[in-house]
């Protein structure tokens, strides 16, 4: 599974987080260690805030783009069209030793059959629906500040094409953080994050259908001379083939023409105020008041489209 096929049920809200914005990850094992880490961490961070510093804005621009994700899926070695039709004829013949496939023109390479050119091919359906996936990850971060105020602003663009046609994830994220030290005992922080994602998924299991599809069938309708046209080919409904093939859609056509898109955005502001009731320079103990206000607002819109000219997948209705 890749981000291109992921959803929030599988990754929760992590799918909306730019990894470049993660400063650190802490694993707390139990309540005791949580308490110890909380005290130690807060004291150290407070000391950091009281450190006299003045830094010029720093800019970090990372553009690791164009590197591939897992290669095109090949899986099992499949029969070509000629071997497949021979196997099917044998399966019809073996039980009764009669040529029962004679009445199925889609398997007999009969030049008088009007659909002959569409059933004399050697189609690699697995190769037709698969491709190399690429990931593009671009991030810009600017940080800096002075004795009173520090800031950090980041923006990122991430895109990933899946290894199956019709899969694409695009995500734009931005985050801004400001820390304002009002005094040695008062610290105000604010954080604002915005994420927008555009996710194209397959309408149905294209790779699974590619493994099932007859390899002697053409991807495109062919003319009387065997030349591909620009129209995708689907087996006719009056065909004598079994329903498992007759009702199986053209996976390349579905990948290119059907639509299963989800657009979503999430806004997450956060404001916090910290006040040390005891002056940390006079007392060894810490008595602190913390107040935080945060909320998250998100929305998503799903759009689906399935061409009416295709056989409908079982259990799926046109929307």
Task: Describe what you observe in this structure.
The chain is of the alpha+beta class and 319 residues long. The chain contains 7 helices and 11 strands. The strands form 2 sheets. Strands 1, 2, 3, 4, 5, 6, 9, 10 and 11 form a 9-stranded antiparallel sheet that branches. It has a two-stranded antiparallel ribbon with strand order 7-8. Helix 5 runs antiparallel to helix 7. The radius of gyration is 30 Å and the shape is rod-shaped. Mean pLDDT is 82; it is low at 32-54 and 314-319.
Which secondary structure elements does this structure contain, and how are they paired or packed?
Elements: H1 8-11, H2 31-49, E1 55-62, E2 65-68, H3 81-96, H4 125-129, E3 134-145, E4 149-161, E5 168-181, E6 186-200, H5 206-212, E7 220-222, E8 228-232, H6 243-246, H7 251-257, E9 259-276, E10 288-294, E11 297-305
Antiparallel strand pairs: 1-3, 2-3, 3-4, 4-5, 5-6, 6-9, 7-8, 9-10, 9-11
